[in-house]
Amino acid sequence: MSSPTDFTLAGARDALRAKEVSAVELTEAFIGAVEAARPLNAFVTETPDRARAMAKESDARIAKGEARPLEGLPLAIKDLFCTKGVRTTAGSNILSNFVPPYESTVSQNLWDAGAVMLGKTNMDEFAMGSSNETSAFGPVFNPWRSRTSNAKLVPGGSSGGSAAAVAAQACLAATGTDTGGSIRQPAAVAGIVGLKPTYGRCSRYGIVAFASSLDQAGPMTRNVRDAALLLRAMASVDPKDSTSVDVPVPDYEADLERGVKGLRIGIPKEYRIDGAPPEIDALWAEGVAWMKAQGAEIIDVSLPHTKYALPTYYIVAPAEASSNLARYDGVRFGHRAKGAHDIADLYEKSRAEGFGREVQRRILIGTYVLSSGYYDAYYIRAQKLRSLIADDFTQAYKKCDVLLTPATPGPAFAVGAKTADPVSMYLNDVFTVTVNLAGLPAISVPAGATADGLPLGLQVIGKAFDEATVLRAARAIEVAANFTARPQPWWRAA
Ligand code: GLN
Questions:
Q1: What is the share, in percent, of the chain residues with pLDDT greater than 70?
Q2: What amino acid positions are annotated as catalytic residues?
Q3: For 66-83, how does the pLDDT look when each residue is reduced to its tens digit (9 = 90+)?
Q4: b/e map of 348-386 (b: 16 or more CB within 10 Å)?
Q5: How would residue 2 be classed by pLDDT, with cut points 50, 70 and 90?
């Protein structure tokens, strides 16, 4: 071990318990790594003092033999999770001074498990985006660069800061949220693991809302075992979130190495899309071969309504967003513009100054599809399609246990490459949005690289509340892929 920042989450846990390293040593190493990673712009707020205080307490607990499951482990938290007394911006100017008086349930669960908070990670504004370029705090840069160019690449989005921080080893692991792909897509293009749990597995309480029927928190980690460990601590039923579900949270680590022998793996034919780079299909085929070689049964399935998923998502998500974001009026919540001459002017000026262009676009779309006369034509039809998309999965799961698909239609792209064309940006989520519409769990696991050395992921989609099987299949991919490449730390020299 050359530096404590090389530990995985599970590795650091074991080393702390064996007293090979202290929580304070580990935390100091990560505080240094967070500072060294500043050129990536992965953090909106660093909390080194809080981290040191938490680490001290962890060392005291470890000394007394009272270590909790994540005792002394330094994590980064997406800036969408409210953290009591620590500014929470959602990547937006409208919340640039918001210091929550309460803690989100997921982050509280992590602190209750002994984890250490390094800071809050950058993200697309209100989690709307696939590249982290809509953040009011500037873009995040992917630690990975192509072998053939020094162009700065996006880390994916919206949990781009979390993905970059994990990939740059500036934290042991991070939290993300996923409404249409925001955990899995950045994980795939940053060469890390990202898991979106079943809707209801993690409480949404204290997470700034984007689209409430789709939003779900999940772990972003260096490997599958770490995702298992972190998910267990994040998940809980919560009286403060009526959509959280009371299904026991198993020890996901226990089953991880069971392999895929006998597992029925569905391959949905609709996920073969025109125009995707040949590397994506090739990687998918390789994944199928790995699973077969390990004794899984490969089954062709059909999810016939897949082609409607993106249009459905881009009606449902903006509709819910336009409603959720109505609260930022400059009176009760959010930035208040100066010099307004009446209340309507105050609302208009505050929202125009506070929201960026993509968020404004979503509010406009959402308001339009919910407006009288258009509601039936757009919103109701989208809801019907959503049911059909969910039913596709129900039918497929009569024949198989999990599905295997690509995670993204391509690798990380250059900063600025897609900002002028929202639809090309939206297409990044073509393989992920279906899963949110159906409320299912899915993981992206690093599985290979492009010819230029950029990471690519495969996605495993599971049945509701069957994250254990998803993790087990992902672990089998991880073993077969043996993806051990690391980004060159160019940002340290910057
Ligand atoms: N990229 C998608 C969007 O912009 C998904 C974002 C997310 O999952 N939060 O809406």
A1: 100
A2: 78, 158, 182
A3: 999 999 999 999 999 999
A4: ebbbeebbbebbeebbebbbbbbeeeeeeebbebbeebb
A5: confident
127 CB under 6 A from ligand 1? yes
Ligand 1: which of 132, 134, 158, 325 to mutate, most ligand atoms within 8 Å of CB? 158
Q: What is the predicted pLDDT for the residue at 274?
A: 84
List the strands of the sheet with 216-221, edge to edge.
43-46, 116-121, 74-78, 173-178, 216-221, 193-196, 442-449, 455-461, 402-406, 264-268, 297-301
Ligand 1 centre and the CA of 154: distance in Å? 15
Give, for ligand 1, the residue of 92, 125, 130, 363 to mutate: max count of ligand atoms closer than 8 Å to Cβ. Answer: 130
When pLDDT is cut at 50, 70 and 90, the band that residue 146 belongs to is: very high
Task: Report pLDDT digits (tens) over 196-224.
Answer: 999 999 999 999 999 999 999 999 999 99
β-pairing verdict for 402-406 and 264-268: parallel
Spatial CA neighbour of 121 closest among 82, 182, 80, 64: 80
State in Å: Cα 475 to ligand 1 middle.
26
Cα of first residue to Cα of last residue in the chain, in angstroms, is 25
158 lines ligand 1 (CB under 6 A): yes
Domains and CATH numbers, the chain: 4-258 (3.90.1300.10)
Are residues 178 and 436 in contact, defined by beta-carbon separation less than 8 angstroms? Answer: yes
Residue owning tokens 């500036």: 170
Cβ(408) – ligand 1 distance below 6 Å: no
Site to probe by mutation for ligand 1, drawn from 123, 128, 419, 459 as the one with most ligand atoms within 8 Å of Cβ, is 128
ω into 2 cis (within 30 of 0)? no
Task: Please check the confidence at residue 136 and state whether its pLDDT lies above 90.
Answer: yes
Q: Model confidence over 26-68: pLDDT tens digits?
A: 999 999 999 999 999 999 999 999 999 999 999 999 999 999 9
The angle at the Cα of 293, spanning 221 to 460, to the nearest 5 degrees, equals 35
**Structure tokens given for 83:** 């953290």
| pLDDT per residue as tens digits for the range 348-361 | 999 999 999 999 99
**Which residue has a Cα nearest atom 10 of ligand 1?**
128
CB count in 10 Å sphere of residue 405: 24
pLDDT at 1 over 70: no
Tell me the DSSP string of 334-372.
Answer: S---SS-SSHHHHHHHHHHHHS-HHHHHHHHHHHHHHST
